[in-house]
Amino acid sequence: MGGVTRRWWLLASFGAPLAWGLAPQVVRVRLDGDDLRVTPVQFHFLTGKSLEKLKDGFSMVFLAQLSASGELNEPAMKRAVDRFIVSYDIWEEKFAVTQTGNERAKAVNLSAPAAEAWCLDHLALGIAGLAADKPFWIRLELRAEDPRDQAVVVGESGLNLTRLIEVFSNPARAQQMRWEAVAGPMRLTDLKRERRSSRSG
Amino acid sequence: MKFGLISLLISGISLWGGNQQPLLQPIEYNVNSRYTVESIDVSPEIESRISRGLKHDLQILIGQKLNPTALNDLARRMRDELKVRTVSQKLLRGTAPEHVRVVMEVAHKRGEFDLSVPRLLYNSSQGWTGGVDATAVMGNHAITAGLLSNNEDLAERYTGVRARYEDRRLGNDRLRFQFDFASYHDQWSPTASANPAGGSLGLYRSRQSFEPVATVALNKELSFSFGAGFQRFDPELRSAHTQSANAAITALRYQGRFEGWGADQQELEAGYSLRAGTKFLNSDLAYVRHRWMLRYSFTKGRQTVSDQFIAGLATGQAPLFERYVLGTGTMLRGWDKDDLDPRGGSRMVYNSLEYRYSVVDVFYETGAIWDSGQDLGIHHSVGVGLRKNSFLIAMAFPVKGGRATPVFLVGLNY
Question: What is the ipTM, given to two decimal places?
Fold first, then answer.
């Protein structure tokens, strides 16, 4: 395989989900300090049923996992998981998002795309352990939390990350809403390092 | 045994108190939690079918900041009580700024089948009362069949089968129709068998009833029912002929809620029902049975004070199943109905004053049951218990001279 250019992996980002027969959800991967983060290019989870439920005034919980693997079908080498609670202000007609994982942050008065971007922006995968010149794939998975999962992943002391990883190791339930995007292959050396951003919340 | 029951009650209080989820706990994650609940809208059809406890808990949320967890819990209880698959919720903007309206709707599926236990009670002086129902719902039509053994509502224990057809929307949302059929075998306590009352009327060993009734919702608070009840019963004396007690039925029911300042809630419920056995309906027995009911409750936060008054009067040749009883698991708790009037009375007054803080229930009840020409003997009882959703556990004590044995009650949907 020749040099993996940014154009190549961007193209692959568009192509891979189609090849997998999934909805064409597309994200862009970027290097932010010592973390990999994703930006939604064409990735929407505040649509359809989930948006309908939010506009009825009730919150929705989304479980998110960002993982890196050497090959498409290989187990993940590294992963980051988090849990986001989204609600829709029926008076202001804006979204509010709360991150409930290791990091706790909150944002209000967001549009739907901004709320989606905020969630993804707060999901960071550390690059420690990833070889700079070795290609890898990035997979983003989001699931609407099933009440049965809630009992497992949220304990008295807060979010249990180990349990959350176990949730993602099992297939989603039949009725469970889920979204997925894959990007790659890419190498760290091909990713332009962005200046570490300061996040609100 | 008595001390065991008291210990169980006390340990129940401590355990329950410890595990209880605060109903009004603020949920910071839903941005709408900062808004105040202006109203909770449920259709009159739903409202008339949910328990008083559930209505009370819905009312508590009005005037409070939105609590989605509590609403989810109530929707789940509503689903269980109505025996439907889904109760959906929706928030709408209120009429005032920063206020929201909650709309709760039942999503009827094209076809549903459900098994349920509509009532279950253990009364340490009278034993078990319980039943199981199977309901099939198709659109607005519901068919229920069930088995029942009841030693609470009448002087005798009656055991048998019952069935109901219900059209929940006869032409329009305001009109409902139901047809009840029941066939019971009746068992009398030795005290009732030995104490003739009610004139020449005797005991019966079995009875069947057919009861078509239509209900019109005159408005959100007021409904009117009318119909007929056809009852046929076989006297215990096998040589006697089957008798019929066919009656015209009417009932008027009012239920209103009033919001006070802040989180105060008041509820007023009143009802009157009349059953008139008449030769016009080919009845062997001519009688009139009146029943009045008035209930008022005041809720502030987690505290509720309520008072319920019920009076009944039966004149003419009312059969024993149309007579009144006190000393059950719901009326004049603590007394034994066999001690008060083993075959029921034709006149009855009853009052229950109840104070509830969260799940803890304290009550004082008083009542009298008698027949024409008898002296009015007023009886009192007090009790304490725990009520959580549809579950009740209580200890009731009759107030009387000498040795008073407490009655232990535990049940569902009482």
Answer: 0.77
